[in-house]
Amino acid sequence: MTKRVQALVSGRVQGVGYRYFASHVARELGVVGTVRNVPDGGVEAVAEAEEATLHEFLKSLRHGPHAAEVTEVATAWGEPTGPGHHCPGPFCQARAPECRHFFSRARPCLASG
Fold first, then answer.
1. Out of 19, 27, 36, 100, which one is annotated catalytic?
2. Domains of the chain, start order
3. Is 28 helix (H, G, I), strand (E, B) or coil?
4. Catalytic site residue 4?
5. Is residue 109 over pLDDT 70?
6. Taking the alpha carbons of 57, 62, 64, 66 in that order, is the dihedral positive or negative?
């Protein structure tokens, strides 16, 4: 069953390639969602996929890339809503709090109009 999870990742996760890592893992797993820096120094990932796949994704988020130091991954589960925007490039990482981009292995990213 498809689910949605919001993960708030704390620790040293900005400036270490964490968003790139998360989007790469998500694309490998076929997860759809967003990843962005948040003002408190953490990273937010919102992802949709089969529940088992999301658990695998969260396991990767808890480890992060080599340079990261993840101290906590807080999660909130919900029902899937589907993508609302499309990303402008292959590594769909939001660069501003108001900017939401989606990553997907199932279809290429297309700039929204």
1. 19
2. 1-113 (3.30.70.100)
3. helix
4. no
5. no
6. negative
Catalytic residue among 4, 27, 36, 37: 37
Edge-first strand listing for the sheet containing 69-78: 32-37, 43-50, 2-12, 69-78
**Integer Cα distance of 24 and 16 in angstroms:** 14
Q: Identify the pLDDT of residue 83.
A: 55
Between 74 and 81, the more confident residue is: 74
Given this model, what pLDDT does residue 72 score?
97
Q: Is 37 assigned a catalytic role?
A: yes
3-state secondary structure of 26: helix
Nearest to 16 by CA among 63, 82, 80: 63
